[in-house]
Amino acid sequence: MPKISYYTTPRGDCPFQTFLDGSTEKVKAKFFKLMTILEDKGADLRRPYADFLRDGIWELRVGFGGDQYRALYFFRDAKDIIVTHGIIKKSDKVPPPEIDRALRCKADYLRRKEPGQPRD
What we know:
By secondary structure, the protein is α+β, with helices and mostly antiparallel strands.
C-alpha cells in the first residue's frame, strides 16, 4: 500500500504544509480524506478525485465553496507518493508554471533521496 509524504526543501520548508496551514478546516478535511483514498488506490485513483497532468506529475482535486484546490504529487515508486505543493486553481487547467514547480521539486527530491541521480 502506498504511503504519502510531503516534499520538503533543502532548508526544511514544506510547501504543502504551508498551503494547508492557510486553508480552512473543511478544505484540510477534504484533502485528508482524499489522501486516504489515494493511499488505498495509488495510481488507479482517477477523476473526479485525481488526474494525470504531465511528466509524472498528478493532481489531487478538491472543490469547496466554488474554489478548486489542487495538491500536486508524483509517485517515487509503487510505495511512495510525494506531495509537492498545493494551489487554488483560477483557470480551467493547472498553470504550466505550477507543473514546472512540481517537476523541480521532484528532481530535487530524487537528487537528495536517491544517490546517483543526474543533477540538473
